[in-house]
Amino acid sequence: MSFYYGVDIGGTTVKLGRFREDGTLLEKWELPTRLGENGKYILDDIAASILSKTVEAGGSPSQIQGVGMGIPGPILPDGCMEVGVNVGMRHAYPARELSERLGLPLVRCENDANVAALGEAWKGGGAGFSSIFLFTLGTGVGGGAVRDGRILSGSHGIAGEIGHTTVNLTETEACNCGNRGCLEQYASATGLVRVAQRALAASQAPSLLRDIKNLTAKDVMDAAKEGDSLAGEAAAVMGRYLAWAMSWVSHILDPEAFVIGGGVSAAGEFLLGLMREEYEKRTPMLSRKAELRLATLGNEAGIYGAVRLVLEP
Amino acid sequence: MSFYYGVDIGGTTVKLGRFREDGTLLEKWELPTRLGENGKYILDDIAASILSKTVEAGGSPSQIQGVGMGIPGPILPDGCMEVGVNVGMRHAYPARELSERLGLPLVRCENDANVAALGEAWKGGGAGFSSIFLFTLGTGVGGGAVRDGRILSGSHGIAGEIGHTTVNLTETEACNCGNRGCLEQYASATGLVRVAQRALAASQAPSLLRDIKNLTAKDVMDAAKEGDSLAGEAAAVMGRYLAWAMSWVSHILDPEAFVIGGGVSAAGEFLLGLMREEYEKRTPMLSRKAELRLATLGNEAGIYGAVRLVLEP
């Protein structure tokens, strides 16, 4: 019996999955993310949990064949995480450190957005395409590129970090990254709400959104679908900037398909519809356009992609 | 004795080089580009020229080991050039067609800008870096990405076509591609002249450029270096848009270095200086920035990159 694990480390929980060699998910569970000591507790907890799950399932530690991890933040080509703000790591080597705890040579680690892209490319909305670019529209905007089953990772660990490309040189509010006008300020869940709130404040136009306290991205998308014009304009801004970013990715990487995931992608075909026309307009050189698909793995994309790191041929 | 050839097909001339297996350029020459018959004459001329050069050099056709070609236009992954405007090809398979003429299995063909990037990555300004992105600033703006010695070619043949990314949503003049606000409209030789001429027409400010007939990009760059403020502003516009495009490439591909080539790159360090600050500002997530280098192979980049296609390990 062989044991393979995929691990998706987040700022509040660690998601884990046990897989068969053929990529079948056998069980999944979560741990709380214990911060502190430069990530020591996170890796201790993951190692202990993997060992105990292996034994519970009737195996022994020597039957663990590989563990893949996704982790939020840039990972350098040598495996170093210089700064992982959400997981409290600095100059850490998470793959090497977990490998030592498990006495296991095959531990691999990549940026979480890239790992999610690998998961979607393998088993999700990107399955069947030779190359994809995933946009993850959540609290922030993440991205990752996969070609021929492999993550396109960068020289400095920021390949796919599309959320912090500048799309608006005239923005006055600052992004979390310190810059102004990042894609994330318009196309994330928080960005969509921000744009809608600004529009609400700037006009007296009637809107379904005026009665909602604690406005969410879903509220904006739902109202837009119902024909609310203020919500529709906020959604259109999101769609236009996303489409523009897609056109850059096409001109630089030229993937076969785009896959759209993250919480905001629950808006489904309506969201894709907001992007399609502008994307086509911005890619006149592209006689055959990239396909546009929704992600299908939800928050399992990370564990699928992570285990794929150690199941690659 | 083994014969390797690199061929760089342009709209007016075809550049050819004969190489040793170790990549040493032994001789180079040019042919006029004979248009017509869907590229038939071009490939006839190349085949005849390669055969005669081989015999002249004391070899026989059976000693030709490989021919690589760069060709202007998108090449699909199956080798099809759907439309190559400058070389008059439509639904052509240039590599296969040259292979048939020469009775040689190893003929490869890629887009010319990607091939130039491969040349610079191998023997030029990008040598020593594991991944580069080349900007070619000539009549248009070309681009190409190389990682671990291989071209990153796209699914629809437009990877690296950075010249037709939109950088200005408010541009009123049209680009050759039909869109408005493409990078090429600001950062090519013709784009730089266009921006300077618009500035000259829009103001009465004194400028060295006012006395020059048939203004060239070199005139604008030279005047900018001498402190001419109108020329300096045109050059700054070019630098800012290029830097912005570099920041997209960093967030999407994250190359180790950028290499700047093409006629406008003769402006040297002055040009790089126009780009550096804006690039750093637009990449706050990038703790270590990509290096910025000038191309060194001039118009031999194409033949070097082309032969590299058939010398790859």
Can you tell me about this structure?
The structure is a homodimer of 313-residue chains. With 313 residues, chain A is α/β, with parallel strands linked by helices. Chain A has 2 domains: 128 residues, ATPase, nucleotide binding domain (Nucleotidyltransferase, domain 5, 2-Layer Sandwich); 169 residues, ATPase, nucleotide binding domain (Nucleotidyltransferase, domain 5), CATH 3.30.420. Helices cover 36% and strands 22% of the residues of chain A. A 5-stranded mixed sheet of chain A has the order 3-2-1-4-7. In chain A, β9 and β10 form a beta hairpin. In chain A, α1 crosses α2, α5 crosses α7 and α7 packs across α8. Chain A starts with a strand and ends with a helix. The interface between A and B is large, with 46 and 46 residues.
Which properties best describe this structure?
homodimer, 313 residues, Nucleotidyltransferase, domain 5, 2 domains
Which chains share the greatest interface? A-B, 46 and 46 residues
User: What fold name stands as the CATH topology of the largest domain in chain A?
Assistant: Nucleotidyltransferase, domain 5
Physical arrangement of strands within the biggest beta sheet of chain A: 3-2-1-4-7
Question: What is the class of the largest domain in chain A in the CATH system?
Answer: Alpha Beta
Radius of gyration of chain A: 20 Å
Number of strands of chain A: 12
Largest sheet of chain A: 5 strands, mixed
Strand coverage percent of chain A: 15-25%
Order of helices and strands of chain A: EEEHEEEHEHEEEHHHHEHEH
Low-pLDDT stretches of chain A are none
Number of helices of chain A: 9
Shape field of chain A: globular
CATH 4th-level superfamily of the largest domain in chain A: ATPase, nucleotide binding domain
CA-CA gap between termini of chain A: 19 Å
Which structural class should the secondary elements of chain A be placed in? alpha/beta
Q: Average pLDDT across residues of chain A? A: 95
Number of domains of chain A: 2
